[in-house]
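Supplementary Methods S3. Complex input for the manganese (II) ion-bound model.
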Amino acid sequence: MTFDSLQDYLKYLSKNNDLVLINDEVDPELELTHILSEEERIGKGRSLLFNRVKGSFVPAVGNLFSTKEKMNAILGDDPFSIGQRLSNLVRAPESNESIISRGIEMFRELSGVRPKVSGSVGSGHEVLDRVDLGRYPITKTWPQDAGRFITLPLVVTKDPETGTRNVGMYRMQVYDQETAGMHWHIHKGGAGHFAKQGGKKGTMDVAVVIGTDPLTMFSAVAPVPDGIDEFSFRGIVGRKRLDLVKGQSVDLEYPENFEVVLEGYVDPSETRVEGPFGDHTGYYSLQDEFPVFHVKRMVEKKNRVYPTTIVGKLWHEDVIIGKAVERMFLPLVQTQIPEIVDMNTMEEGVFHNILAVSIRKRYPGHAKKVMFSLWGMGQLMFSKIIVVVDSDVNIHDRKELLWAMSTRIDPDRDILIVPGTITDTLDHASPKINYGSKMGIDATKKVKAEGYERVWPDVLQMSEDVDKMVKEKWKRFGL
Ligand SMILES: [Mn+2]
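Predicted complex, serialized as structure tokens:
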């Protein structure tokens, strides 16, 4: 079961005592997101609905993804099981497998999940007479942020050559009533479409959808491979088709269950200074030139709610989202690199700075092979440091990981430094933007062919029968 709309999800939260209504007036500048942050840091991580935001008639809601329980409810299942289901879709049939039952299984997974255009913006929706971004409770989170930023927009574009749709989530700095920044990183789907439009005449249509059912919002963040429609991905994950409507003034379709839609365009010949913006890295991302989004039309649902999130150091809800992504995509990574046992995209490393994987090592140089595979795979290409350990190490236990790193590395032999692409504004340490270096740490046990001539010592481990016996006795001793 997945949710039909943001409002449907809010009803669910309310029933679970996980939605707190705040009727006191709050300021969308600094105050609102800091309240969300404190609820996450020292509270229970409940979702908060702000009914009276200073300067706006539209209520704001936040902490929508703030606990693992909520995330699982949004996904309709635990993310690893969903990942297994997804990887099963791309698996070749086995020799003893009934092709009919496999066919039925594929049919069940894929039928009725393609997004469908069911009409136009209509009943229950209202096209506003005038464009004014100032009517929304758009938040400013950190004191040195350049202004207010839309933080959960679904940015819908079409490839100007193939017509393939992309949906991505990129922050948008509000410049004035009608314009906002379009901060899509150079590697992302929207930026790819924009680059193609650059070679053509005219502007590119963009629809910015704010507030949909939470699974669609998640799908816009998920590292869905380029060329795959996020709305279709959402249908497969949620086992339910997403209904779309045709845009009013743009040649694009967007989810029928929206709260607010901004229809407009970007012009390839125009950029503007964007930022600074307090980012996931724990630093302010620096100012840079980015495309400008012009709003032509605004459409709203009746009783719309504006969703927001706090971006900052990684103990906020982005960790919950990031970990769900990690679990969901692990089985897919394993279809390509089956020797990977587990993967930890560590939040301390802002998810892309430190990646730990455990492998079943079979041959000399195996850890290096895995590093290069990961640096060539989707958004894992951004991994600045990759640590590879043997499968006896629990990589989710920081102590164990550091123990393995410190006891299995000879730095001269096991550290690899290579050049590569990095995430533009999210890496301020590299001397240049978008280009820098990567480090691979091979913390697996070494074999002779890797230049190790000594005897690799055994790891301490109690024998199973003694361990079992002592555990029983220990209980009997009343310890
Ligand atoms: Mn995409």
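The CA atoms of residues 339 and 360 lie 5 Å apart. The pocket of manganese (II) ion is lined by residues 166, 168, 189, 224, 226, 230 (CB under 6 Å).
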